[in-house]
Structure formats: C-alpha cells, structure tokens
Amino acid sequence: MNGMTNTILIVDDEPSNRETLISILEPEGYLLAVAENGYQAIEQAKAMQPDVILLDIMMPGMDGFEVCRTIRKEEQLAEVPILFLTALDDRHSLLKGLASGADDFITKPFDRHELRARLKNITRLNRYHKLLEERRQLQQAHQNLLDAYDATIVGWSRAMDLRDKETEGHTQRVTQLALELAEAYGLRGEPLTHIRRGALLHDIGKLGIPDHILLKPSSLDESEWEFMRQHPQLAYDMLFPIAYLHPALDIPYCHHEKWDGTGYPRGLKGEEIPLPARLFAVVDVWDALTSDRPYRPAWSAEKALAYIREQSGKHFDPEIVDLFHRMMLGKSFSFDSR
C-alpha cells in the first residue's frame, strides 16, 4: 500500500488490457479510473486531476500522441505524469512520444513488477513536486499577506502625518534614518523589518489625542502634556492585539523613555529600554530639531548634533550617540568634528 492514495487514470481501448492493469494495480492501493478512448481520457483527466495517466498509444479516433499533446496544453494537467503503454519499441515512436510530452514508457505485454516499480517511483516524484509547489504557493501567499499588512502600515503612518501638517514627512524621514542607524549598529535581516514597522507606527498613538491638544500652535500646559504623554500607551493598546506587530512594539511604546530613567510612559532606565527604541529616540529628536515648527525655526545640523551629544547619558544611550555622531559626520553636512 502507498503512504498516500494516488489516483491512476488507465486509458486503453482494449478491455483485456484495462482488466490486466486493474488486476496488477488494485492490490497496491491505487484509486483507479478507466477511459476507453482519447476523448474520454481528456474529459476524465479534467474532471479527476489524476496523479498519473497510463496512456495507450494505438487507439482509434485519437491516438495516444494526440491525447498527450492535448493534455499538456491544459494548464491544470500540464504537470501530470504520463506513461505511454505501447507495443511499439522503435526509436521513432519513442522520440515522438517524448516530443508529445510523455514522461516514461511501459512496454506491452506488462511486466507487473516493472510496472509497479515505475509507478511507485513516478508517484513519489510527483508527490514531491506537488509538495514543493504547495510550499511555494504558501510562501507566496504569506508574502502577499505581509506586503498587504505593510502597505496598511504605510497608510496609517501617512494618515498620521496628514493629520498633523506640522510634522508632514517626519515619519518617512525618521524611518529611513532609523534603518541606517540600525544597520550601522550591525543589525541585519528580520530585526530591520521590525524596526521599519515600529518606526512607521511610532506616533500611531497620537490618533487618540484630541485635535485641540495635538494641533495646538503654542506650548502645551501641564494637563495637556499629561494627556500627550499617554500616546505611547495608546499605541501599545492599539497595536498589541495584532500579533504580527508584537516584535515592532518596542518603538511605539518605548521611544520616549530616557537613558537616565526620566522618560515615559514607564520610566525605564538604561538597557531596560529596548534597543530599537534607544536607536529610534536619537533619530526622532534629530528630525524634530532640524525641522521647522510654528514656535521655532529648524536648528542647524551642527546645533542639533551638539544637543544630542550633550544629552548622551541623560536622554540617550551614549554608545548610540557616538555611533550616530560618526554616521552623521559621513553625510553631506558641514560639521565641526571637534
């Protein structure tokens, strides 16, 4: 018996040949179907999608060569293994059969042991091919789903930027810079994917902040700041139910924590703060300082970098500040490197 039930379509116009094949294969546990001519064979094949077709060559009306060529033109049947059943053993017929799309030949009269061995091998290979194809399709479906998720994330981030005109473009800029800094730190592969998603979603919690606070053109008072400081927790509450975003939560939840423990929402200190959030905190402040705001013009790159260095060990991880400093010196800014 096979480990899996394979379906064999037997195509032969001679009843005695069909009966012989059935007697040989039925004890092997195959699910068998028969067709008496080429037209029946094509209809049967379309209907049942067999694992293997045993196809006689010499048949009236439509011979095996034509049946094979027709089947190979059907998208759903193009990969089904076809074994020709033939009393022909001349080279011309064998080459014509291969050109028609046959995979193998079984010569009449049948040697039952050879037939069983050939079928066992070809069904094993066909099953392996199907498993590979199913895996490829599953991987493609998974990738398509991730692409759709990521497109949704980008849409959310753009919606956030559009809501707050003052910071339009901020999310795209800090996402790119965060990835550059993470790569400079030595991160590769999947961690970068999570950093990208976290950076795109870093301010998603501000969707829960009322407009009169978020869009206030002047400085916030203490009660308003208290409300604003809730946005990392709001981001966590919004995103945590989405399982595939769990590895990306560090940035939305923790990017306002500070190295000295004076940040929010949890007052984490030092390496208690997840690495992605420590990396992102630097680029987030950098972009905020070097962008125009209603209450102040953009700082120069040199002034912003000096401030970030001054905050080393206070707001920021000193190691990351040093790395950021070296990275920015390599960019097209005119810095005094002293």
Structural commentary:
This protein has 338 residues and is an alpha/beta fold. It folds into 2 domains: 130 residues, 3-Layer(aba) Sandwich (Rossmann fold), CATH 3.40.50.2300; 166 residues, Hypothetical protein af1432, CATH 1.10.3210. It contains 14 helices and 5 strands. Strands 2-1-3-4-5 form a 5-stranded parallel beta sheet, sandwiched between helices. Helix 3 links the parallel strand 3 and strand 4. Helix 6 packs antiparallel against helix 7 and helix 12 packs antiparallel against helix 13. The radius of gyration is 34 Å and the shape is rod-shaped.
SS field, number of helical segments: 14
User: What is the third-level CATH name, the topology of the largest domain?
Assistant: Hypothetical protein af1432
Portion of residues in helices?
A: 40-55%
CATH superfamily heading of the largest domain: Hypothetical protein af1432
Give the distance, in angstroms, between the N- and C-terminal Cα atoms.
79 Å
Number of strands: 5
The overall pLDDT average reads 87
CATH class of the largest domain: Mainly Alpha
Low-confidence stretches: none
Q: What is the succession of H and E elements?
A: EHEHEHEHEHHHHHHHHHH
- Assign the CATH architecture of the largest domain: Orthogonal Bundle
Strand numbers in spatial order across the main sheet: 2-1-3-4-5
